[in-house]
Design brief:
By secondary structure, this protein is of the alpha+beta class. It is built from two helices and eight strands; from the N terminus they run ααββββββββ. It has an eight-stranded antiparallel beta barrel. A hairpin with a 2-residue loop joins β4 and β5. The radius of gyration is 23 Å and the shape is globular.
């Protein structure tokens, strides 16, 4: 088939330019999606029945087992487990643990390509940032008081 006009050159550089343009146009939407905290339904769908381990600044921080009915079991690294509950408040996922039922711990969670990222929402604004580094369906292994004594 012969066209009545010459076709412009659509060589590799034109394809690269088109790809770069597409990436540039989609990046703001992707960045906006990644910056949106997940809500309670998304959090529950992702976590329930799983045990997630988190790092802080590249160092193991703690592990949380997400149980049915929004119950949790948390342990800082090498410490005893604490049972508690989680719920959504003001767009954050908040936790209360049996060892201190008045100390509400609220976090904003974000879904990333590598798992969850949690940002603690303290009274002075966002502070501690945790990253999911491991996921398991096994229950959390808890240390008991005075083990080995």
């Amino acid at each position: 088939m012969t066209l009545p006009f010459p076709m412009p050159n659509r060589g590799p550089s034109a394809l690269r330019l088109a790809g770069a343009l597409l990436l540039a146009l989609s990046f703001p939407a992707l960045a906006q999606e990644m910056s949106r905290p997940i809500g309670a339904d998304e959090f529950q769908a992702y976590t329930e029945g799983r045990t997630l381990s988190y790092n802080f600044s590249g160092t193991p921080y703690g592990t949380e087992e997400y149980l049915p009915d929004r119950r949790v079991r948390w342990a800082f690294r090498d410490q005893e487990c604490q049972d508690g509950v989680w719920y959504e408040r003001n767009g954050n996922i908040c936790f209360l643990y049996d060892n201190d039922p008045t100390d509400e711990q609220c976090w904003s969670f974000y879904a990333t390509g590598d798992g969850l990222r949690g940002v603690f929402q303290g009274p002075d604004g966002p502070t501690t940032e945790l990253y999911e580094v491991e996921q398991s369906s096994a229950p959390l292994s808890c240390m008991g008081p005075e083990v080995g004594v």
